[in-house]
Design goal:
By secondary structure, this protein is an alpha+beta fold. The chain has one domain: Jelly Rolls, CATH 2.60.120. It has eleven helices and 16 strands. Strands 1, 2, 3, 4, 5, 6, 8, 11, 13 and 14 form a ten-stranded mixed β-sheet that branches. A four-stranded antiparallel β-sheet has the order 7-12-9-10, with no helix packed on it. A hairpin with a 2-residue loop joins strand 3 and strand 4. The model has no long low-confidence stretch (mean pLDDT 96).
């Protein structure tokens, strides 16, 4: 392990403040410090029923926007129910994640090591190699829009992105289902802010995304005692993220009102939604990009069980300009291109030369 990553086990986020592109005053350790952290067992993340949007007419859309907007303005997280995606699809895809990491060889996976394409580092991340600042105890794989046969391109090649035939089609079903939720969520957030509700429709109709498959192997005693986290504390870079409720616990959310951590265990079949840095920027800090991390499960019996998660981060294309939305107050941030914004932040994970400056 590099000295940098070893230091990362005890690091706090403010050591990397120079990379941030939105205001983040919270101070926290990247990994849970056993015995020293405080937990908020009383706070409940708001559940929002999407049937209000789909079946409730104009009044239903208004009420859904009110509930969702308030939840995200309060803490940056909400739980979506009534979204119309069957729990059986999530279960099948969870099994496919296990197969992707357990039924392929290390050599097969390493043939797809991650590299930057546009704004996003896409491809395979070995265990302890997801960032240069912390030895996360997870294997990850990021697939963006170009890794799926979504747009009818004649030259699409599955083998360019996937180690074996069949995986693309299996996960494409989930991507297509969740893609249908992008505009309803964005329109609802714009409605809450008092903006024109369809002003992002064209930008998001076939937008880019980062579909990340995370495989957390069972933890042995040495890993448990190392102090490393399963995934470091961070804020997402995107507009918002869809996370199907994981089967194994470990997700923690920072409540910045009291600087205590919330153990988030969402109901099976629900979707955890959180806002990211893009959204904090354009909403003029109304919707925060909220800190979260994955820690070892509180139940020791689960340490020997693998954990999987399938977050889908919703981005804007690289040439879009991020501007503070009208009606959200005096702008705190100047306009910036999505690629410059995105890569400036994520260069803390991948190195300073990752950043794209002054793009043409």
């Amino acid at each position: 392990m590099s000295n940098r990553k070893q230091r990362g086990i005890g690091a706090v986020n403010q050591e990397f403040r120079r990379y941030e592109q939105v205001r983040k005053d919270q101070n926290y350790h990247l990994a849970e410090k056993t015995g020293t952290e405080q937990f908020d067992d009383d706070y409940r993340i708001q559940s929002c029923d999407m049937r209000l949007f789909f079946d409730g007419g104009e009044q239903g859309k208004l009420e859904f926007a009110r509930q969702l907007g308030k939840a995200l303005a309060d803490i940056g997280f909400a739980i979506l129910t009534g979204h119309g995606i069957g729990q059986d699809l999530y279960r099948r895809c969870s099994r496919h994640v296990v197969a992707l990491f357990e039924d392929t060889t290390a050599a097969e996976r390493k043939a797809y090591l991650a590299s930057r394409h546009g704004s996003v580092n896409q491809g395979y991340f070995p265990k302890r190699e997801t960032t240069i600042i912390h030895p996360d105890l997870v294997e990850g794989w990021v697939f963006c829009r170009r890794a799926f046969d979504l747009d009818g391109h004649a030259d699409f090649s599955e083998s360019k992105f996937w180690p074996r035939p069949g995986f693309e089609a299996q996960f494409r079903e989930l991507v297509l289902a969740q893609q249908q939720l992008i505009l309803p969520i964005m329109q609802s957030l714009l409605r809450y802010l008092g903006c024109e509700t369809h002003c992002f429709d064209d930008k998001l109709e076939a937008t880019n995304f980062g579909f990340r498959l995370n495989y957390y192997p069972p933890m042995d005693d040495s890993e448990r005692s190392s102090g490393a986290g399963r995934m470091l504390g961070h804020e997402d870079v995107d507009l918002f993220t869809f996370l199907p409720a994981p089967e194994v616990e470990g997700l923690q959310v920072l409540n910045r009102q009291n600087m205590k951590w919330i153990r988030l265990n969402a109901p099976p079949g629900s979707i955890i939604l959180n806002t990211g840095d893009y959204m904090q920027r354009i909403s003029n800090d109304i919707f925060p990009s909220t800190t979260h991390r994955v820690s070892p499960p509180a139940d020791p019996a689960l340490l020997g069980k693998p954990r999987v998660s399938m977050p889908m981060a919703i981005y804007l294309w690289e040439d879009e300009i991020l501007e503070v939305l009208p009606g959200t107050g005096e702008p705190k941030y100047p306009p910036i291109s999505a690629i410059e914004f995105h890569t400036a932040i994520t260069s803390k994970y991948y190195g300073d030369d990752y950043a794209v400056k002054n793009p043409k």
